[in-house]
Write a sequence for this structure.
């Protein structure tokens, strides 16, 4: 048995797998490398918001966490993961250079997924940069449940705007903002999120992106009386909950402040549960991978 | 010395509660599972960033987050014992008295097969833990733990300091330790200068030398070796140097199946 993975955890939630995958396709789109990777069993278990950890470069011990942009069947292989890589450091550059046919050690899907509403309520999905990736499969799941989807996608510039064309297919209203104004409105998520939220009449807001963006979304949601679910990206080492390298300061259901693991108790957490102010100085230091 | 199910042991602090690891690789092939280092009270751990990557290693200063003894005994230990690995509980603390209190409680906990006293925390002072710098400090802690541990074997994890490891091993076994654990992190610093430990393949040659030093000085003392073990050959090197067992730690953060795979290869 190539893949290993055993039961345990929450009932109904399949345990992650550790397996050897294979790169089936690799394509540069703007600033990002889009990898299609078949990793038996992993794609089947994927739920939007979960991620995979991959090994890089043989000698590097820390793994790289990647968002899953989608799952699509590839002839002869079954469902494959679509991963988005921004090549900024040694590990992500190595990943971006993997040729078709290369082997990749993959563990996943890891972490907690976005929770889906039971009722067909209006939703707003806010994503920035490559981190917008999990919102696309999320939008599909929400549409299947009859939830109207509005989408706000942001990026520093056009090259780092993820899948703007696809956005129009999955959402009924799309707002695009870029910091340099190269496409859509010039500005940031923080500038526009309150207005977009009011327009969408969303009762649930989902967000994925840098910490200041998530903070802005969580605050706007709270003010509008909407629920927010944020996918918090922290620099992490193992992704499996072992190393305690991705501390996430939160307030528990019981009102008590505690520190959880972003990889295991997250990455998706309720926006009103995160102690954002304590997170931001850290986020300023550590990007997903140091260049 | 603790009765092991095999020569490959999950090292302290790298197997989580056991659940994270068990989800990805069977624990039943390993000789023993060492818990993360437990303290009497819950700890939230230190500030981020806690871990940095370095060639062939990880620099880490987590501050040993943990649930504290009470919650561990109520929720984590019973589950772990059910999974049937031999469970060794790693212990640390802010004082000799804290170590002793934890040992006293563990001696009454069903399913615990041994206590590993972590005398090798490389950033202890930064996190308010007892800073065991001198071998006689280590001996004091071990004596207190042995006194409270009753029949439970006590393993002493000493600093992997090549020049002083034999002396440390001698005093902790004189103080009653049933075995010496050699390896673990080297004292290091994070990129911003905060005290930390260095683990991973970078420390393997140092750890191997520590094992040979202890074996040469104290041929009668069982030594558990570890430090940067990633492959079955790494493990064989420690066994060939005279270790009775090998700990696998940091490699689990890279590949959670490592301990199970090495155990299978050596079986």
């Amino acid at each position: 048995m190539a893949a290993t993975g055993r039961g345990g955890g929450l009932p109904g939630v399949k345990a992650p797998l550790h397996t050897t995958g294979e790169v089936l396709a690799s394509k540069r789109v703007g600033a990002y490398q889009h990898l299609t990777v078949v990793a038996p069993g992993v794609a089947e278990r994927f739920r939007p918001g979960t991620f995979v950890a991959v090994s890089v470069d043989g000698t590097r011990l820390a793994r790289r966490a990647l968002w899953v942009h989608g799952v699509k069947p590839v002839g002869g292989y079954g469902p494959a993961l679509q991963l988005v890589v921004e090549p900024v450091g040694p590990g992500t550059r190595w990943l971006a250079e993997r040729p078709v046919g290369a082997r990749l050690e993959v563990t996943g899907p890891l972490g907690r997924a976005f929770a889906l509403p039971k009722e067909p309520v209006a939703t707003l999905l806010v994503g920035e940069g490559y981190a917008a990736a999990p919102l696309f499969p999320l939008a599909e799941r929400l549409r299947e449940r009859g939830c109207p989807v509005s989408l706000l996608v942001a990026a520093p510039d056009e090259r780092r705007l993820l899948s703007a064309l696809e956005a129009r297919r999955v959402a009924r209203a799309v707002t695009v903002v870029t910091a340099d104004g190269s496409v859509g409105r010039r500005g940031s998520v923080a500038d526009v999120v309150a207005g977009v939220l009011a327009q969408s009449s969303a009762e649930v807001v989902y967000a994925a992106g840098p910490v200041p963006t998530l903070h802005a979304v969580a605050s706007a949601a709270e003010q509008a009386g909407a629920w927010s679910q944020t996918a918090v990206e922290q620099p992490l080492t193992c992704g499996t909950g072992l190393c305690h390298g991705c501390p996430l300061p939160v307030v528990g259901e019981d009102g008590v402040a505690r520190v959880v693991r972003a990889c295991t108790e997250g990455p998706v957490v309720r926006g009103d549960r995160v102690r954002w102010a304590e997170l931001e100085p850290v986020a300023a230091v550590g990007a997903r991978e140091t260049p | 010395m603790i009765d092991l199910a095999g020569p490959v042991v999950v090292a302290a602090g790298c197997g989580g509660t056991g659940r994270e690891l068990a989800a990805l690789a069977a624990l039943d092939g390993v000789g023993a599972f060492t818990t993360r280092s437990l303290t009497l009270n819950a700890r939230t751990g230190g500030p981020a960033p806690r871990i940095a990557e370095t060639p062939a290693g990880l620099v880490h200063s987590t501050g040993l987050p943990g649930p504290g003894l009470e919650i561990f005994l109520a929720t984590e230990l019973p589950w772990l014992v059910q999974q049937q690995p031999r469970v060794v509980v790693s212990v640390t603390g802010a004082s000799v008295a804290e170590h002793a209190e934890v040992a006293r409680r563990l001696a009454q906990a069903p399913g615990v097969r041994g206590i590993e006293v972590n005398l090798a925390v490389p950033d202890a002072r930064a996190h308010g833990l007892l800073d065991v710098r001198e071998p006689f400090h280590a001996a004091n802690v071990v004596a207190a733990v042995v006194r409270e541990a009753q029949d439970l074997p006590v393993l002493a994890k000493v600093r992997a300091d090549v020049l002083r490891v034999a002396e440390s091993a001698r005093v902790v076994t004189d103080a009653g330790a049933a075995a010496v654990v050699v390896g673990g992190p080297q004292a290091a610093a994070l990129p911003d200068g905060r005290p930390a430990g260095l683990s991973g393949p970078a420390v393997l040659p140092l750890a191997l030398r520590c094992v040979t030093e202890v074996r040469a000085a104290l041929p009668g003392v069982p030594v558990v070796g570890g430090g940067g073990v990633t492959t079955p050959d790494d493990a064989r090197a420690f066994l060939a140097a005279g270790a009775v067992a090998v700990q696998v730690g940091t490699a689990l953060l890279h590949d959670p199946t490592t301990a199970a795979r090495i155990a299978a290869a050596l079986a």
User: Anything to note?
Assistant: Chain A has seven helices and 15 strands. The interface with chain B takes residues 4-9, 15-18, 55, 59-63, 105, 107, 234-235, 237-238, 240-247, 258-259, 264, 282, 285-286 of chain A (CB under 8 Å). Helices of chain A lie at 42-45, 90-96, 135-144, 164-170, 189-200, 211-224, 276-285.
